[in-house]
Structure formats: C-alpha cells, structure tokens
Amino acid sequence: MFKNLTWLKENKIKCLYLLKENKIDMIQAYDQYTQEDHEIWSLLYAKMAEIIPKYATDVFIDGMEQIGFESNKIPNFDECNARLKSITGWVIYPVPGLIDNKPFFEHLANKEFPASTWLRKREELDYLEEPDMFHDVYGHVPLLSNMHFTSFLENLARITLRHIENPWIIEIVSRLYWYTVEFGLIREEGKLKVYGAGILSSNGETQYSIESDIPKRLDFDVAHILQTPYIKDKFQEQYFVIDSYKQLFDSIGLLEEMVEKEAMANNEI
Asked: Backbone phi, then psi, for 166, in 5-degree steps?
C-alpha cells in the first residue's frame, strides 16, 4: 500500500500504523518528535516568517491563524483537523511520504490531504529532494481553509480518478496541479502574491517568484498549462497567475471537457 517501507524505517518516520475497519491507516506519533525536530520546525518557520507577510496570499496568512500553527512546535494533526474540518470539511491524512497516484487522488476526493509526518534534518534546511512535513503541512494546509480552493482540489481528483489508468491523463492533470497547487501565483489588490506550496515552503523561490526578472508570469489558462511540462530540479521558468480562487474552481468544467477529449484521442474506452 505504501512505497518503500525500508526507507521509512531508516528515516525513523514519526507515525504509527493502525488497523481500522480492516484497512491499515497511519496516525501521527506526535510524542515521538524530539526537541531537535521541534527546533528544526522553528528554524524553518522563522525563516519563512521574515517574508510571508510581504509575499504570501492573504488566504495563506489567515489560514495559518485559523488552523493554529505555532512557531515553536510541530503541528499536531488531530488539533489541526478539529479546526480545519469545521472550516471546509477537510482533514490532514498522515502518509509515510510520496504515495501512488490512485490513493493520492482518492484521498483528495474524500477531502483528505496526504501529508508526511517526518521532518528534514538540520543539514537539509535549504534543500530537500523529497517533500517532508514542512512542505506538506506548512506549505499546503493553510490553503485548505478556502472553500473555492478545496472544491477545485476535490473535483480535480474526481476527474483524474475516472482516468487513473491512463498515463497521459495523469501527466496533463499533474501539470495543472503543479502550476496551481504547487507553484501558483495570484493577484490580490493589484499585487502578485504566492499561494503555491512548493513556493511557500522555500524562502528562496518565494522571493524569486515575485521579484526576479527571469521567470515568465502568465495569465491562468487551462489549455496552455496542460500543454506545458514542468521542471523539478530548479526554480520554475514560468508561473501562471490567477485572479481569484473562484477562477480555479470555475476552471473545472473546462478541465473536464479537455480531459475527456484527450482520453478519446488516446483511444481510452
């Protein structure tokens, strides 16, 4: 069910497996976090706190407060979920790390955001190859307080699950997820702000995405995004800018239409 359990053991993942209703679930083993873990969270949090007020979308800043993030301790998923569920009906769902496409989109369709429970080491503060809890929770969870954004996620997952065995559909939907949920920008009161988690969990890319003259900043366009491959190993060369989170939600109809056409073109039955 989960990828690479040997890797999990080697990295002393902070989770427990729980047999519930004949399936294995994970829970955050909060009491297993060390003082070092909490200090690393604090260091990462403090580094982002210096720039978040200037660069982050208002929804992110408000969401952090609503969900109860604190600078000096790792979030407790149960406490966050109690608040988050009352706002949009969503919860954080603990996972060991990257999971397969099918369970990932199933969780999103069920209003569960998959989030790692492990945190990077001190020597990895500036760069980490695989997303950890700081990326998954700090970067993603505050936006889950916005109903239009979460409705976009839920419907994106629903569309994807209908074509989960089609690699090309997974590829183009992943592009939309990448350029919005991970690396999206938004206009707020005439200023560019960041809402993508891949940006907001990186001090360097947060500033680069707004201030640098290098990347292109293009208006949000579903058709353009589906035709645009993304890069993983360096700062993005282009960003797509939305005008509102409602615009994201309203794009679902067009996405569904385009996905169905792509599926027919690829002889999917």
From this structure: -100, 105
83 has a pLDDT exceeding 60 = yes
**Rounded to an integer, what distance in angstroms lies between the CA atom of residue 205 and that of residue 221?**
22
User: Above 50 in pLDDT, residue 231?
Assistant: yes
> Which of 226, 218, 101, 109 is closest to 167 using CA atoms?
101
Q: Is 114 exposed, middle or buried (0-12, 13-18, 19+ CB in 10 A)?
A: buried
Mean pLDDT of the chain: 90
Q: What is the pLDDT of residue 46?
A: 97
Task: Give dist(CA 40, CA 169) in Å, integer.
Answer: 38
From residue 80, how far is each of 113, 115, 231 by CA, in Å? Answer: 12, 12, 32
Query: Is residue 99 within 8 Å of 114, Cβ to Cβ?
Result: yes
* 233-250 burial: b if 16+ Cβ within 10 Å, else e: eeebebbbebeebeebbe
Both structure tokens of 100: 């397969």
Summarised one tens digit per residue, pLDDT across range 110-163 is 999 999 999 999 988 887 778 999 999 999 999 999 999 999 999 999 999 999
Locus of tokens 């679902």: 252
Question: Phi first, then psi: what are they for 44, rounded to 5°?
Answer: -65, -45
Q: How far is it, in rounded angstroms, from Cα 172 to Cα 169?
A: 5
Q: Residue 154's closest CA among 230, 256, 243, 30?
A: 256
The CATH code for residues 5-265 is 1.10.800.10
**229 token code pair:** 């491959």
State the pLDDT at residue 188: 98
